[in-house]
């Protein structure tokens, strides 16, 4: 995993010249969902169980995650359009155009998916989770424990 | 915003050869927090109000976000270590080493920050938000409306 991975652009604006960052795939979603057309839009809309399979290099970073934990899984929505700035929520043509930041649309400048799921089983380098709407093959880029109350931290 | 921004690596594993993705800065955090040493660890631990200032190219993607909205702000934690796989939660030396994915540590392979905040004011290309623990100058990479109940989507 190198250091900052910043890429210097000649047209740097604002804070300096580094405006892009390299995200590495750390694992992959294994799911019975194979087709975007049939994937539910959100996890609580009949999304199936899925397995997160992590690259060996990061497996030790999973230590401490146990069955029952609620985690935030960040994915790279690799089939998304990055040029879409406005959309009709849920593809409903009767709804007016809305900025993508006001939605959960996968189409957005940086297509990072955010999924709050419960861990069903934690194995070596793998996590079985409930209700994940990402399709099979979606790259995983981060996992965080969900924030509970301040006392539990 | 180009197309997929995928970078092909000769040492491709698993799903194909694309294992890295380029994230672009879409805006920046403006905050009275200037120093990581004094930043609170979580937003509900006395984090101050902050302003998110977006690049002009993505300003239309904010349309539909209004004061009172709860949003998820994704940042790039540019001062983090990407080589850290285990840590002691909250820097407490009495706690045992834990995988970073079981924590909210900013040090992790892909240092993406996740902040749930309430919008206090929405201006053209800017959002004033309550309780953000990111320091001044932190790059913003995505914004999503927080998920409410299925009925409100």
Brief summary of the model shown:
Two copies of one chain form a homodimer. Helix content of chain A is 0%, strand content 35%. Chain A contains no helices and ten strands.
Estimated structural class of chain A: mainly beta
* Main sheet strand line-up of chain A: 3-4-9-8-5-10
Helix count of chain A, per DSSP? 0
Low-confidence stretches of chain A: 1-15
Distance between the termini of chain A: 27 Å
Shape of chain A: globular
The whole-angstrom Rg of chain A is 17 Å
Name the chain pair with the biggest interface and residue counts per chain: A-B, 68 and 68 residues
Instruction: Name the helicity range of chain A.
Output: under 10%
Oligomer: homodimer
Strand content of chain A: 25-35%
Biggest sheet statistics of chain A: 6 strands, antiparallel, barrel
- Tally of DSSP β-strands of chain A: 10
> Helix-strand pattern of chain A, N to C?
EEEEEEEEEE
pLDDT average of chain A, as an integer?
86
Key features of this structure:
homodimer; 153 residues; mainly beta; 6-stranded antiparallel β-barrel; two-stranded antiparallel ribbon; 10 strands; 0% helix; globular; disordered N terminus
